[in-house]
Write a structure and sequence with these properties.
Elements lengths: L12 E6 L2 E7 L5 E9 L12 H8 L9 H10 L3 E6 L3 E9 L3 H13 L5 H18 L3 H13 L12 H6 L2 H11 L1 E3 L2 E6 L3 H12 L3 E4 L14 E5 L4 E12 L5 H13 L5 H8 L7 E8 L2 E11 L3 H18 L3 H13 L8 H13 L6 H10 L3 H11 L6 E6 L5
Parallel strand pairs: 2-7, 6-8, 9-13
Antiparallel strand pairs: 1-2, 3-5, 3-7, 4-5, 10-12, 10-13, 11-12
Length: 420
């Protein structure tokens, strides 16, 4: 990559600590908006067997009444102050946060604290939110894509991490309210808690927020997460689904999010499968052969490990050829890595597009939280262009050979694929 190296996108990030909690803050008074995001390990991985979806359902219920406010009153208070407050549970994390106008910050703190410390779990709210979750779980399995994804993760990560994070229709229907009430006590602990904030809030104001929201949380860590199993899928598995089209989810084990090759691997995956029409897979599958509308792959981090996962959908009669092209391109990239033009395009895109991820306080808080989760240093953003520019063809070829394993590429297909 010739020419000068562009400077990295920098943020004036401050480290703020109070009440035994540390946060990263990107203060910016140009717009009177404040966003806060937090995460703590656990999530769906801590759901007891037979109670899959408990963390996800409990997260959805935190804003359905708290303290002396029933569900309707709580939601009305959020609407009146234009506050966005939400919580969620993924495979390995419990997350939450809010966004509000600066003038509404005291109300946002009040309502968020109520949700975190005094959720109601009233039966009418539980019944309503549960019904919505059950309908969503059933809808997710109506088509080939949902069937393929569910089977892929169940086989790839057998056990707690491979279960649907939101639970199944059966597990959600059977969840007692008592199981939901145990989630906050299990999750809300200071050990592993990560917080990030952005917008029109000062360090001293954030200190008060940290104490108000998290100061009463129990010390220590959440219960031990289950051990992350090795990638358990191989070969091709077909899930019969009556449909004119088949959906495939494919992938294999990758590398840790803290691996020194992480950024180089990101360049390789963009060239192979993540760059839209500039990617090799899109060009080979769609542009040259018209086999599918789209195909892509990238890292899916779970418990600190980045699994390489992708998907494609096509007519039943064309899935076998699509998989053949996929494997050919996977092997070609593993053998040779990106060429000079591909390397230059990928690095230019990853460098030039970085500021576009920082167009709102919500995005900034989320990115700061992700940086903390992946153990990045404060200057990680500023130094990223230099690190990317230093990736020469030899390094990318070596990383391609390391992370791409054509013989280990596992595929789950849902549909009626011909010849498979």
């Amino acid at each position: 990559m010739s020419g000068s190296i562009p400077s990295g996108f920098t943020l004036p990030v401050q480290v703020v600590s109070a009440g035994g909690v540390t946060a990263w803050l990107a203060e910016d008074d140009s717009v009177p908006v404040v966003s806060l995001a937090f995460s703590v390990p656990g999530g769906a991985s801590l759901d007891p067997a037979g109670q899959e979806g408990a963390a996800s359902l409990a997260a959805a219920l935190l804003t359905e009444g708290a303290g002396d406010l029933e569900a309707a009153a709580f939601q009305e208070a959020l609407r009146d102050a234009a506050i966005s407050l939400s919580f969620s549970a993924d495979r390995d994390e419990f997350e939450g946060g809010f966004r509000c106008l600066r003038d509404a910050l005291p109300e946002a703190i009040r309502l968020a604290r109520l949700a975190l410390t005094a959720p109601r779990f009233d039966q009418p709210a539980v019944d309503r939110v549960r019904a919505r979750a059950v309908a969503g779980a059933r809808q997710a399995l109506e088509g080939p894509r949902g069937q393929a994804g569910r089977a892929f993760w169940a086989g790839a990560l057998p056990g707690a991490f491979g279960r649907p994070p939101g639970g199944t229709a059966e597990s959600l229907s059977a969840l007692p309210v008592e199981a939901l009430r145990t989630v906050p006590a299990r999750q809300f602990r200071k050990g592993g808690l990560l917080v990030a904030a952005a917008g029109a809030i000062s360090a001293s104001e954030l200190e008060a927020v940290l104490v108000a929201l998290f100061g009463d949380w129990a010390e220590g860590d959440v219960p031990d997460l289950p051990a992350l199993p090795g990638f358990g899928l191989s070969g091709v598995r077909v899930v019969p689904v009556e449909s004119p089209q088949s959906s495939a989810v494919f992938g294999h084990a990758g590398i840790g999010v803290d691996d020194p090759d992480w950024e180089a691997a990101g360049v390789v995956l963009r060239v192979l499968a993540g760059g839209g029409f500039s990617s090799r897979l899109m060009n080979a599958v769609r542009v040259e052969r018209g086999l599918a509308y789209g195909i892509g792959a990238g890292f899916e981090p779970v418990a600190g490990q980045g699994f390489i996962v992708g998907s494609v959908a096509t007519q039943n009669e064309r899935m076998a050829e699509t998989l053949s092209v996929l494997r050919t391109e996977w092997a070609r990239m593993a053998a040779e890595g990106p060429n000079d033009a591909e390397r230059a395009e990928a690095i230019a895109f990853l460098t030039g597009s970085q500021p576009l991820s920082f167009t709102s306080t919500r995005q900034i808080a989320g990115i700061l939280l992700a940086l903390r989760r992946n153990n990045r240093p404060l200057d990680w953003l500023a130094e990223r262009p230099r690190r990317l520019a230093a990736l020469d063809r030899a390094r990318l070829a070596a990383v391609s050979a390391r992370i791409l394993k054509p013989d280990a590429l596992a595929v789950v297909i849902a549909g009626k694929p011909a010849g498979l």
